[in-house]
TrEMBL record:
SUPFAM superfamilies: Zn-dependent exopeptidases. InterPro entries: Peptidase_M18 (IPR001948). Pfam families: Peptidase_M18 (PF02127). This is aspartyl aminopeptidase.
Length: 160
């Protein structure tokens, strides 16, 4: 799949345009996030327990199970701040295993900047998963704003 994605991008942009396309591209790896469960609050860091109806979650992991870095989270964080859209940050506990997403795989294989996000939910992978409607709405609003404003916002982002 990853080779096909790279091949497809090269075919769409041409060999010479591929590098430019990668530099101008950005991947939002959108999945779900484990919300703070009242019966298992010890599973989260005290300041990083995503709550339902409090906005989309930007996910960080020091073991690179998520593609998010401080630089790649800038775009979403800045847009959310400007538009007053709620956003939460989540850092996985060091002693707690976690799954991964397609974000780090694609970011590594293609060299595209990426951020991992998710709507907080309870009972992930069970038959009764629960998430908040407000979080779906705020995520949709943020994604829409991202695609409408990315080029302009990205032009202001300077890396020294």
């Amino acid at each position: 799949m990853l080779i096909c994605s790279t091949k497809a991008m090269k075919r769409l942009n041409g060999e010479k345009g591929f590098e430019s396309a990668i530099q101008k591209s950005f991947l939002i790896s959108s999945d779900m996030a484990h919300a703070l469960h009242p019966n298992y609050s010890e599973k989260h860091e005290s300041l990083h327990g995503p709550l339902i109806h409090k906005g989309l979650v930007v996910k960080y992991n020091c073991n690179q199970r998520y593609a998010t870095s401080m630089a790649t989270s800038f775009h979403l964080t800045e847009l959310a701040r400007k538009l007053n859209i709620p956003l939460q940050k989540f850092v996985v506990r060091n002693d707690s295993p976690c799954g991964s997403t397609i974000g780090p795989i694609l970011a590594t294989a293609c060299g595209i900047r990426a951020v991992d996000v998710g709507i907080p939910q309870l009972s992930m992978h069970s038959i009764r998963e629960v998430c908040g409607v407000k979080d779906v709405v705020s995520a949709t609003n943020l994604f829409t704003a991202f695609y409408e404003n990315f080029v302009k916002l990205d032009a202001t982002f300077k890396v020294d």
